[in-house]
C-alpha cells in the first residue's frame, strides 16, 4: 500500500527521539516492545535516550495530580529531557499523551513543556498538534468534531459523561472550540489549522505540509481521523514539516504514538505468552474506576462464579482507624484466597464520596488517600498472584508504580484492543508478572469478563 511505503520511507531517516509523557498508564494501549519508565530521574531519561527504540514512555500519572503538582512535574521533566538531549547531541519530540475523551490538565501540561524547553534552548515551537483519535476505543474526529462511540452510536464528546468530569469537564465537541474553551480564549477556534478528512483521503500530502508550514505562534493543528490510514497520512505530512525545520508540541491519544514510533501490528496476547510461571495461585483484580462503562463491566464480571468478590468500603476514609482496619481485612482475606488458588476481585464501594458543592480539592485529596489505600493492598500482599488486573487509569498507575514498585516495564502488547499488558521489571515486587492495565472507559460490557476468563482458564 502506497501510504505504508511513504510512511516507512519518512520514518527511516527521522532521527529524533520520541518521548511520550503519559498522564496515566493506559497510553501504551497501541504499542508493544516499548519501555515505560515510572519516574523522570536523569537515570531513567538517559536510559530511554540510550535505547535502540526510537520511542519510550514516561508515566507521569498527572491526571491524578493537582494543577500545581502537574506544573512542577512537567518543568522537571522538560529540564531533564533538554539537558539529556544536549548531552547526547540528540534531537527529540515530546508527545503529551492525554485521554481520548479529552480529560486532563490541558493546556497546562503542553504550555509548561513548551515554556521550559524554550527557556532552556533556542527551540521555538510553531504549533501544537491535537489528535485524540483512538480507533480501538471508538474515538473519532470528523469535520473537527470529536466523537465517542457508545455501542452503535457516535456521541459528540461534549455530550458524554466524560465531559461532565468534576475536575476536567468541558462543553465543546468541536476541537478548535475545545482548545479555545480550555485556553480561556487565548487561542481562537478560527486561528486553528484544520487537517480535513478530504485532504487526507485525497492523499494531498503536499497540501497538508503547506498547511503545517504556515503554522506559527503555537496555534493549534486539529487532526481529523477515522481510520489508522488517516493518521498515517497525517504523520507523513508532520514528519516532512519537522524535517523542514518546524517545531511542534503534541497532545494526542494513543494512535499517534504507534504510528510515529513505527510500531508494527501485533496479534492480541495469549494466555501462554503471559502466564509463564504456572503457579497454583489465584489472580487478583483491583477495580477502582467509577465511570459508567466500568460499572457495567463490573456487573458482567459478577456473573463469573470462579471469582470471590470483596467490597472495599472506601467511605471509611473519613474515619482513619476504621479505614486502616478495613485495609487489613482485605489484605488478609485476599492472601488466604489467592494462596488457595482462588481469583479475587477487590472493588471500591460504587457510591461516590460526595462532600457537596465547591469541595473539589478536598474530594481530590480524599480520592488520593483512597487510591493510596488501594495501592497499599498490593504493596502489602505477601503472596504472588498468578496475574494482576487493575481497572481504571489512576488505579493502575498507582498500583504499578507504588504497589508493584516498577521502575521500568516492557509493554508486552494488548490482551484486547486498547488494553495493554506490562511485564514488570526485575526490580519490581513481583518480577515478570503479567500486569493488565484496563482503562476505565475502553471495551464493551463483557470485555473485562472475557479478559479474566482468558487468564483464568
TrEMBL record:
Q: State the name under which the record lists this protein.
A: Hydroxyacid dehydrogenase
Q: Which domain of life is it from?
A: Bacteria
Leader sequence residues: none
Which InterPro entries does the entry mention?
A: 4-carb_acid_sugar_kinase_N (IPR010737), 4-carb_acid_sugar_kinase_N_sf (IPR037051), NBD_C (IPR031475), NBD_C_sf (IPR042213)
Q: Does the keyword Ligase apply?
A: no
A Pfam family recorded for this sequence:
NBD_C
Q: Which organism is it from?
A: Peribacillus butanolivorans
The UniProt entry's sequence similarity note says: Belongs to the four-carbon acid sugar kinase family.
Q: Which residues form the Four-carbon acid sugar kinase nucleotide binding domain?
A: 284-448
Residue stretches making up the Four-carbon acid sugar kinase N-terminal domain: 18-258
Q: Do the record's keywords include Nucleotidyltransferase? A: no
Any idea which UniProt keywords this protein has? Answer: ATP-binding, Carbohydrate metabolism, Kinase, Nucleotide-binding, Transferase
Molecular functions (GO terms): ATP binding; kinase activity
Amino acid at each position: 500500500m502506497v501510504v505504508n511505503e511513504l510512511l516507512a520511507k519518512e520514518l527511516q531517516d527521522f532521527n529524533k527521539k520520541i518521548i511520550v509523557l503519559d498522564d496515566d498508564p493506559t497510553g501504551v494501549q497501541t504499542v508493544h516492545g516499548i519501555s515505560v519508565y515510572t519516574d523522570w530521574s536523569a537515570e531513567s531519561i538517559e536510559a530511554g535516550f540510550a535505547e535502540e527504540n526510537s520511542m519510550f514512555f514516561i508515566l507521569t500519572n498527572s491526571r491524578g495530580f493537582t494543577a500545581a503538582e502537574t506544573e512542577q512535574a512537567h518543568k522537571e521533566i522538560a529540564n531533564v529531557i533538554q539537558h539529556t538531549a544536549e548531552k547526547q547531541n540528540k534531537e527529540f519530540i515530546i508527545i503529551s499523551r492525554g485521554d481520548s475523551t479529552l480529560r486532563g490538565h490541558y493546556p497546562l501540561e503542553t504550555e509548561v513543556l513548551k515554556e521550559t524547553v524554550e527557556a532552556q534552548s533556542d527551540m521555538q515551537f510553531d504549533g501544537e498538534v491535537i489528535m485524540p483519535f483512538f480507533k480501538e476505543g471508538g474515538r473519532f474526529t470528523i469535520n473537527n468534531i470529536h466523537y465517542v462511540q457508545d455501542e452503535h452510536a457516535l456521541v459528540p464528546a461534549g455530550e458524554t459523561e466524560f465531559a461532565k468530569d468534576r475536575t476536567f469537564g468541558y462543553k465543546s465537541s468541536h476541537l478548535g472550540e475545545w482548545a479555545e474553551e480550555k485556553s480561556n480564549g487565548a487561542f481562537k477556534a478560527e486561528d486553528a489549522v484544520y487537517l480535513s478528512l478530504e485532504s487526507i483521503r485525497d492523499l494531498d500530502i503536499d497540501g497538508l505540509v503547506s498547511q503545517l508550514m504556515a503554522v506559527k505562534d503555537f496555534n493549534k493543528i486539529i487532526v481529523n481521523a477515522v481510520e489508522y490510514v488517516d493518521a498515517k497520512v497525517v504523520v507523513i505530512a508532520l514528519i516532512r514539516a519537522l524535517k523542514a525545520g518546524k517545531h511542534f508540541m503534541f497532545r494526542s491519544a494513543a494512535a499517534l504514538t504507534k504510528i510515529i514510533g513505527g510500531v508494527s501490528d501485533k496479534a492480541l496476547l495469549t494466555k501462554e505468552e503471559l502466564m509463564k510461571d504456572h503457579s497454583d495461585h489465584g489472580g487478583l483484580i483491583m477495580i477502582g474506576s467509577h465511570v459508567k462503562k466500568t460499572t457495567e463491566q463490573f456487573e458482567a464480571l459478577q456473573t463469573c462464579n470462579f471469582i470471590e468478590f470483596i467490597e472495599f468500603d472506601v467511605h471509611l476514609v473519613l474515619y482513619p482507624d476504621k479505614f486502616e482496619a478495613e485495609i487489613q481485612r482485605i489484605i488478609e482475606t485476599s492472601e488466604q484466597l489467592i494462596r488457595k488458588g482462588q481469583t479475587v476481585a477487590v472493588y471500591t464501594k460504587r457510591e461516590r464520596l460526595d462532600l457537596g458543592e465547591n469541595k473539589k480539592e478536598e474530594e481530590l485529596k480524599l480520592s488520593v488517600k483512597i487510591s493510596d489505600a488501594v495501592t497499599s493492598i498490593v504493596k502489602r500482599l505477601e503472596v504472588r498472584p498468578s496475574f494482576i488486573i487493575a481497572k481504571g487509569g489512576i488505579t493502575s498507575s498507582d498500583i504499578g508504580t507504588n504497589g508493584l514498585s516498577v521502575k521500568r516495564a516492557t509493554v508486552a502488547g494488548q490482551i484486547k484492543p486498547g488494553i495493554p499488558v506490562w511485564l514488570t521489571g526485575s526490580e519490581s515486587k513481583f518480577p515478570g508478572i503479567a500486569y493488565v492495565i484496563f482503562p476505565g472507559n475502553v471495551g464493551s460490557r463483557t470485555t473485562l469478563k472475557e479478559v479474566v476468563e482468558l487468564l483464568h482458564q
